[in-house]
Specification:
The complex is a heterodimer of chains A (359) and B (137). Chain A is an alpha/beta fold. Chain A has 2 domains: 153 residues, Glutamyl-tRNA reductase, N-terminal domain (Beta Polymerase, domain 2, 2-Layer Sandwich), CATH 3.30.460; 154 residues, Rossmann fold. In chain A, 50% of the residues lie in helices and 16% in strands. The mean pLDDT of chain A is 86. Chain B has one domain. Chain B contains 4 helices and no strands. In chain B, helix 2 runs antiparallel to helix 3. The model of chain B has no long low-confidence stretch (mean pLDDT 84). The chains are: A alpha/beta (359), B mainly alpha (137). Chains A and B meet through helix 8 and helix 13 of A and helix 1 and helix 2 of B.
Chain lengths: 359, 137
């Protein structure tokens, strides 16, 4: 008995190809067909947006890997030759290492992301419910979950954010304990601001203020954003207030976090404005993120006590640092996977020998 | 006076513990604030937020100050302040100033750390002076 993995991932195939052989978790027929593949004793189908893989415990013999490979494309009505250049195959020790790497998020598009483990667990449950999972794969996947947990506890692979939005949100949490009662001011809008906004809302922020140049544009923006926010966060009780630039100075003291991103050629928030605001709010910290070019917030603001100003370069620098850190942690994780993979392979070899001798 | 002495010592000790903890949190706050200002903060690290540190530090300062007030008040019930207790009184004044300024204009962070350091030194000196029978100072 040997473990075989056949599939394609974001590393070997573009989305346009992957989507053609995507298996729906509700498609019970695919499991029935998998069981019919010659040589397959147990099976599991892992189908996510980044990978489609079929893992099987198979009898040793000629062409068993090819049979599985054929199933992958045949099931969706394509000849195997059409996708052969995109499909990878792993057998024995290599398959064990591969699945351990996938579950530990070492093979993910963003190395260290936590979603993949949940997806592998879901695939495991679905295959179990479809009754295509037997003792071999049960042992194997439980070991894979154990390895993923070991990687998570023994390394800091997934603990550092690697997007500008999540870096800004995590910096926020270095300053504020709770984000639910904080007031966020958005000056202008843009893709990057929206990314930060998304992360802040996910972390519980409920009150937003949006400032724009004129009252008219504020009203226009109000209509656009209200719908957008409501659509995106249907369940959340997000409230949005709108301010014109003239009102900004008067309300600045209420803001805990300020996100600026406009095309303005001059500073919209000056040192004097921020000094006044921080005094009015009795030195309660303010976190400012200025992602506009040219900058909208006077850089001198960072020198005021209890105000922390970060610009796009600062955030990107942190992302770079975190990526470097992740790469180092990934090396540690690879060692764990290697060690556990070798151990499991030895054990499996031992079980197979015992089984064949009937002990 | 001897009647109140155990109470004075107990309350002063309690105050010293609270104020020592407040000082430690002040140091953590200073480290975190410095990292944020220098933009060297490691976002993955599990250091508490400035807000959390500040809240707990303020509570400790408040409890420490109340304990210190009671400790000094008990002495004043029996007799006038001895030289060792005068150090404690000065420390009490510093902590009182910290709490007053905090309410007045949100005094926090680095400045609170320096003031706490002065206040705590005075309180500890008073304790040492008292325990060593005036041999130190």
């Amino acid at each position: 008995m040997s473990i075989v993995v056949v599939g394609m991932s974001h590393k070997t195939a573009p989305l346009s190809i992957r989507e053609k052989i995507y298996f729906s978790p509700h498609d019970s027929k695919s499991f029935q067909e998998l069981q019919k593949v010659k040589g397959v004793e147990e099976g599991l189908i892992l189908s996510t947006c980044n990978r489609v893989e079929v893992c099987a415990a198979m009898q040793e013999g000629e062409g068993v890997t090819q049979n599985l490979s054929r199933f992958l494309t045949h099931y969706h009505g394509y000849p195997p030759a059409q996708f052969s250049s995109y499909v990878y195959q792993h057998k024995g020790k290599s398959a064990i290492h591969h699945i351990f790497r996938v579950a530990s998020s070492l093979d993910s598009m963003v190395v260290g992301e936590s979603q993949i483990l949940g997806q592998v667990k879901a695939a495991y449950r679905t295959s179990q419910e479809a009754k295509v999972l037997g003792p071999q794969l049960h042992r194997f996947f439980n070991r894979a979950f154990f390895v993923a947990k070991r990687v998570r506890t023994e390394t800091t692979l997934g603990s550092q954010p690697v997007s500008v939005g999540s870096v800004a949100a995590q910096l926020c949490q270095k300053i504020f304990k709770e984000l639910t009662n904080k007031h966020i001011l958005l000056i202008g809008a843009g893709e990057m601001v929206e990314a930060i906004l998304d992360t802040l809302i996910q972390r519980g922020v409920q009150t937003f203020y949006i400032a724009n140049r004129s009252k008219e544009s504020v009203i226009r923006l109000q209509g656009q954003l209200q719908g957008k926010l409501q659509e995106r966060f249907k369940q959340s009780s997000v409230t949005v207030h709108y301010l014109s630039f003239e009102e900004l100075d008067r309300w600045l003291f209420k803001m805990d976090v300020i996100l600026a991103s406009t095309n303005s050629q001059s500073f919209l928030l000056t040192r004097a404005m921020m000094e006044k605001a921080i005094q009015q709010r009795k030195q309660n910290p303010i976190f400012c993120v200025d992602i506009s070019v040219p900058r909208n917030i006077d850089p001198e603001v960072h020198n005021i006590d209890n105000i922390y100003l970060y610009n796009i370069d600062d955030l990107q620098e942190t992302v770079k640092e975190n990526l470097k850190h992740r790469a180092l942690e990934a090396l540690k994780a690879e060692r764990i996977v290697q060690e556990e993979g070798d151990k499991f392979y030895e054990k499996m070899h031992h079980w197979n020998t015992r089984q064949s001798t009937g002990a | 006076m001897t009647h109140f002495l155990p109470w004075h010592i107990g309350l002063s000790l309690l105050a010293e513990i609270q104020l020592a903890l407040a000082l430690m949190l002040g140091i953590l706050y200073w480290i975190q604030e410095r990292r944020l200002k220098k933009k060297t903060v490691f976002v993955g690290a599990s250091m508490p937020s400035l807000e959390a540190l500040d809240k707990v530090q303020y509570r400790l300062l408040l409890i420490g100050f109340v304990s210190l007030t009671l400790g000094i008040g008990i002495v004043l019930l029996g007799a006038s302040l001895k030289p060792s207790q005068s150090w404690m009184f000065l420390g009490w004044c510093v902590y009182g100033a910290i709490l007053y300024l905090r309410r007045l204009n949100g005094f926090r962070g680095r400045r609170v750390l320096w003031y706490s350091l002065i206040g705590f030194t005075l309180v500890i000196l008073s304790g040492l002076h008292g325990y060593l029978g005036g041999r130190l100072l």
